[in-house]
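Ticket #4471: structure output looks truncated?

Reporter: J.K.
Steps to reproduce: submitted the chain below (463 residues) through the standard prediction queue, then opened the result file.
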Amino acid sequence: MKRIESIKHIFILLINIMSLFIYTGLYAYSWFDYYYPVVNNFNRGIKLYLNGHIIIVLLYFALLSIFSHTYGSLKIGYLKPVDIFFSQVITLLAVNTVSYFQISLMNNWVVKIRPLALVLVMQLVIALIWAIMCDYIYKKLFPPQNILLVYGDRSIEDITSKFSGRKDRFKITKFINVSEGIDAVEKEAMDFKGAILLWDIPLDIRNRLLKFFYFKSKRVYMMPKIPDVLIKGSDQLHIFDTPIYLTREHALAVEQRLIKRLMDIFLSLILIIVTSPIMLITAVIIRLYDRGPALFKQVRVTAGGKEFTIFKFRSMRTNAESDGIARLAGRRDERITPIGRFIRTVRIDELPQLFNILSGDMSFIGPRPERPEIIEKYLEELPEFSFRLKMKAGLAGYAQVYGKYNTTPYDKLKLDLTYIENYSLWLDIKIMLLTLKVLIKPESTEGILDNQITASKGDKNSQ
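Returned output as attached by the reporter:
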């Protein structure tokens, strides 16, 4: 397995470097063929020597690498071809936009966008072919990995359904329950040709198996529990020769809160100004459709359990909850109006929350605010759900980028705690950039399934 994994990594590295060179080469051609002669005209007399040209091209390559890493556009085999392509689209749009403004600054005035736009079109065509071709080659060279699922009392339906969605990468071929005994699990695992998946088993058994598999150099996939997430985000200290993990009582330091708040004020003001025509048109259309209010107001909960009124454009009919029962939107929810379905798909319904951010009730990035009634339901089965209230609620968050609208509360909690325990300004910026990718993924706004349990009783034993 070690040799196969090494070959796999080398293969992915080589094809990714090749793609970056191709994209950079197309940009370099436009630079030398059109943009540099424009910048180096007789009026301004700007002249670059070889090192200057190298820096321009390397800067583009560096930006391409950074954005590719951020959006995951180089994760061949890990992501599906459609996700790879969408990631490439956003990466190339971002890098070429930055490069266009860079060239315009060098020219002291805007330059023609057509040459770079043609480069972008060629890059996108290559990206589509590249994503499909690389995925095809990857599947031919590296078949799905066989998985031995080690499980406990909790139902395995959830995890098997998720792994079945990636049959191109994983294939659960064997199952064994820890009730058969640790010795039986270890023997089965050593005879098994593939990786091990530890799914929600008691901590003492899990830790023993994990050390055993590590010693035997077996690849292990493991579902983290809440304490695992907290430990992963802790600071590592040393008291003489003893390593110590520190989990802080405050989610953010004073300076982090100040910077985060200043960024919220600055960005919300800019976006309110830029999107004000869209908000005005949306409000008018909603009002004309059924004569109901354009805005939807609802009580939500933010940091420390504080309640506030959130603003959204109304996407459901006016009597959507006339029975007084709080419920999440379903995938085929009949309460959603045709206009509401559109504005939910393109996320226009969230724009009024910019005023919540400006007022300080919310932040741009943070755990999504839930309704008090729904939080109470979650807490009945999942008391740790209150952990996410350590940080101010956000317009977008870690759980929205890496999860879905219909992700279970337990998984959302672990995702939100991952953000809280690993917070940094760069992480906020990264999530903002990744949110652009989420906007074009329809599954992130699907809603819950009709039979989906939101406050899953099965999660209670997993904490």
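Triage note (M.O.): checked the attachment and the full token line is present. Residues 444-463 have pLDDT under 50 and may be disordered.
Status: closed, working as intended.
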